[in-house]
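Sample 1 of the test manifest.
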Amino acid sequence: MSKEDIVDQALDQTKEELSEQDSEKHLIKAVKTLEVVEGSINEKEERFRDWYSLHFPELVDEIRDIGQLAKILDDSVQRDDLEAFSEMAESSNGSEIREKQKEIIETVLEDLNSNLELRDELEAYIKSSVKDEMPNLSKLLDPIIAAQILAQAGGLDELAKMPASTVQMLGAEKALFRYLRGNGTPPKHGILFEHEFVRPLPSNPRGKMARFLANKTVMAARLDNYGDKDKGEDLRQEARQKFQELKGE
Amino acid sequence: MPGIFQREGLIYTESADPTKSVYGENLIEFDGKEYRRWVGKRSKVGAAIQNGMDIELRPDMNVLYLGAASGTTVSHFSDILTDGVIVGVEYSDTVIKGLVNLAESRGNIAPVLGNARNPEEYEDYLDEYDYIFQDISQRDQAEIFLKNCEKYLKEGGTGLLAIKARSISDSRPENEIFDEVKEKISDRVDIVDEVNLDPYEKEHLVIKIKN
């Protein structure tokens, strides 16, 4: 190989490897941002509900989903303008609001709305890039959970090298180390708790399910990192079977 | 030493990419040519030369550089090696970005993202090298160096190893650590020279070997 060829080949290859790793980094950053945005939505939702209860407490109690509430109040926050809830508005216990107050409440709602949009866009981005880059993992777990596991592990390469017992504990570090220091009981699950096959189970079988799912998760991660086979559906089927067994107990 | 210029107690290399300062070093003009100062505090090879070592790097050599980082020392090697090529291996994807930038503006640097513990990772490039330099702060730096010398260093080739005592042990005295490393190395290759990097770096030793 000539000197120029060596330099060119090394440059091309290194840049490619770097950009491959970078796309994973984008995903991890998106997961972390989503975490922050969700936290701020929760706080802002609480504040908004509290504030708006002054004017229309019945609606706030009635509509539990913030996205829905925001949609209803999109045109006007004045309770008399809400045709669908006119009956409720007439008998409302809340006090009247003046124009000035209406405006500021609408501004706050706008901010909340833009946060909700940001959350949806982040979720869409995470879902699509997890499906592209980790087909097996995203089929076995929900794409968002798969992305959270990946972010906690620090990358697909790292995740593929992890023992299943570590994956089972990802996201439960605080409880795990508390236990290792001699306080408390060992955690059964971290991020995996959020999975639809884990959360509905009662405490005891839930630990079994988390252990089982962690094993399958590692397999899926290894398939995604080292292989190109598509076995996500099979793995999910096995997990579902196990879930049904444990549910029947 | 070929390619290295000494002036008023400081050392310089003739810049292969004039007007650019790679890591903040001073540029000077002399005889119509531009020279870049080789700063001992920033580069262990620079420090070794200032402390009197002849690194025996010639312009036509092919060099395997392990632990290239962002390319501070590599840039001076690149100045010297007007006919040779440097294969720079670096493990961290963060710092190698600097090396990639450097490689793009100079024609003789081949940046490789890889682990020097596994010499097979970069066997695509050259089968043997005239010169190997290693600067890796790892506990098993001696073993890594020997592995690479065995696989890649030409018969009669030269190698330079920068040893950081504190990455081998936190508490033992530096001389004890250096002796241990030297013993390991001299089992397999001949140590021809050594120099302590004080005052540029603390508790560092550079040794020169011949295969």
